[in-house]
Every structure is written in structure tokens, then in C-alpha cells.
Amino acid sequence: MIDKFVRSMAEAMNGIRDGSTVLMAGFGEVGAPHALLEGLIEQGATDLTIVVNSAGRVQKAGEPAQGIARLVELGRVRKVITSFLRSQSLAADAVGAGRMEAEVVPQGTLAERIRAAGAGVPAFFTPTGAGTLVAEGKEVRDYGGRPCVLELALPGDVALVESWAADRWGNLAYKDSGQNFNPIMAMAGQLTIVQTHHVCDLGQLSAKDIVTPGIFVDRVLHVAAGDPKLPR
Amino acid sequence: MSETRESFTPLGRAGMAARVAQDIPAGWYVNLGIGIPTLVADHVPPEREVVLHSENGILGMGPAPEPHRENPWLINASTQRVTMRAGGSYVDHASSFAIVRGGHLDLCVLGGFQVAENGDLANWAQSTSGVGRQIGGAMDLAIGAQRVWVVMEHVTKDGRPRILKRCTYPLTAARCVSRIYTNLAVLDVTPAGLAVVGLVPGLSFEALQARTEARLQRG
After folding, report:
1. Is B6 contained in some domain?
2. Does A192 touch chain B (CB under 8 A)?
3. Which residue from A86, A138, B40, B101 has the least number of CB within 10 angstroms?
């Protein structure tokens, strides 16, 4: 019997090694696997490359660092690959102080590099970023009269994903704008770990409701996380 | 400059958004960027069917919800809570940017720091050296949409021109802008240069040129 449910956070995080590339889904607070990120902080893996749409908010004085910012503060992140590195975030401070590398990429290129990794496409050319700082050091070729930049697939050793509902095969359904990076990161993770709001019996999620089929999923942990909050 | 007798009122943020909204016809698929562009949605009358795209995977986005009807699972690119129109749909991030990069949007409205007379856009960083880099979806939108309109103040807070011969800030994309809406004027980017399509009442062509580094053509 296939059963991808794990019973504890320790089991969910088991075996994540130092030096891993971790894909972290979510856009704003929606579809973000916050509990799994807390689990990763607890688990202790270090020297990580974190792939995430936004590398964290402006850090307010006196407020404890949370999520990505906490991982950065602990010195556990070697590199962040992101479309948003905000000034005055802990991540930007770490980059400025030389404690961490950052690769800031266009959001569509980020998404397509992740999708490509999941689809077995090692690299592709895109006009996005041609003639900008993003193209520095990259091969550029003309296609259809437009300069295009060579971009590499971005696979993860680990993907952290949040779903609305899941069954024991690892089939996933999402709520509203909660899809965002989740389906493509699930595809691109060597080890895809899911936190799900709801648990369904096999067959309860209908074939047409399943957005991510279980073939892309390795472990599922039930976390009743509640509704996404508004940003502070 | 002998402008002391000139009397004109620059548009405010809402006025600029309303001016852009006037030019968006029914049936277009449109992405609105962060800032003033987001306000454009408030000025498209609901009976005019314009389909709004949000980069986090929404087509058919509606206005802000009434306070008691908020859905925490439905946010726009600025992470504000929004609504869905009848006929709307959700996609994942790669499909959302396939909509953008695949040339499927009729229009994208972006904010800007600088626009050059050849249509170059700079809207994500004010130096090459700063650590903060906030590219987001702007580079994808700038190369992918059928039309890119920029809406911004005509000059900086300290009065320096934003419409230039060449951008001095890092580019978002080269030669991508087709139209510029400012608090003073509407300009088209043409092969012959920037053509003035409209001015706020009371502002002369010469006074606009004095606030613009790039050479302007009478429209």
C-alpha cells in the first residue's frame, strides 16, 4: 500500500543534508509552507541554498526574525536565489556584509527554471533580462531578431510545499491563489515534502481536482495551519 | 524659464490612474504593476470587460473585497486581498508567466523610475551597486506583453527629469515602452522619438520640454 503520510515533523525532515538546495514555495503568506520551514530550522541542516520568490521583509528593530530571515540570521544559508531581495531585510544585510551570496532573477525566469528542472529540460533561452544586469556572464543568442539569454534549470534536492488537501498517494489540491510556486516546486524537488491543511481518503479528491499528482510527492505531513495572515 | 504666468494642475495618483484606464478597451487582457498601476483597476467601469492578470496565478481578478467578505487565500501581486470575477481562473506560477512571456497579454502597465526616448525602461533599482534588488516580474512583463505603458511622475521629487535621452539606472528591458503617462502629459514612443499626445490643461509644450531631457515632438 502506498502511504506517503508521515506522522511527525522529525520524520518529514529526516535526511535533509548540509549543502542542500531547498525550493521553498509560496507567494506572500499564501501557499507558503511555514511549518516545514520551522521544521527545517529545528532539523539543523546548514550551508543551504534557498530558492524562494521573496527573501523576506524589511526587518523591524526589536522584532524576532522569522522564517527565511531566521534561517539567515542563524548563518545556515550559503546562497539565496530569489526575485525579491529587499533592502533592509536580514537577507540583504547578510549579502551586504559578505556572509551570504544572492542571485536575484526575474520572477518568470525563476518559475521557468524550476519548471524546466521538473520537466527534464536542462536549459533554455529567453528574452527576459537581455541587455540588463541579469544577463551578465551568460550566453546570449539572437532568436527571431531578439537577443535571448541562456538560463539553466533549477532543481532542488528538497522542495517544501503547502497544499490545501492531500491523500495517501500524495495527490495534492490547492485553494484559490495558493497554487503559485507549489506545483512546479513539487515537480522539481528530488525529495518533495508537503504540509497539508486537510487529509482526504484516497478517491475523495477527484481526478479533476488534483493539480499535483502524487508521482511528484514523497512525504506529506498534516498541519492545520489556519488561514494565511496579512503581512505585518 | 519664464513660466510664472503659467497655471496648470498636475494630476494626482488617482488622476493618472483614471487617465490610463480611459485608454483600455473592453476585451483586453491586462497586467497592472505595483503602485499607481494597481489603482488603474478602480477606474475601469465594471461593465467594461477587461480581464486582469496577477502574476501569482490569477486571471479575472476583481476589486478589493468588502471588509467582511475578505478571502485570505486570494491576494494580488502586491499581497493585498482581492476578489475574483465570474469567469476568473487560477494557474500555477509557470503558467502565469507563460501568459506573460508567451505574448498573451494585450497590455502591461508598469511604474517607472526612468524611461528613455528609445523606450528603454528602468524601474527596479536606482544603482548597480546596492544590495537590495527587487526585480519581481517586471523584466518578464516588459519583454512579454504586447504593449507596455509606463505611468509615473514626470520629474523626480527634487525636480530632475525622468524622461531621458538614456536611462542612468539599471535597465528593466531595452526598447519595451510604447506609451508614457505622467502627471503632466501622455507621450508615445515612436521611431522618430517621443510624441506628445496630450498635456494637462494650461501647460505649454515648451514648459513640458523644459521638464524633459529627451527631445519631444509635437503630437
Report:
1. no
2. no
3. A138
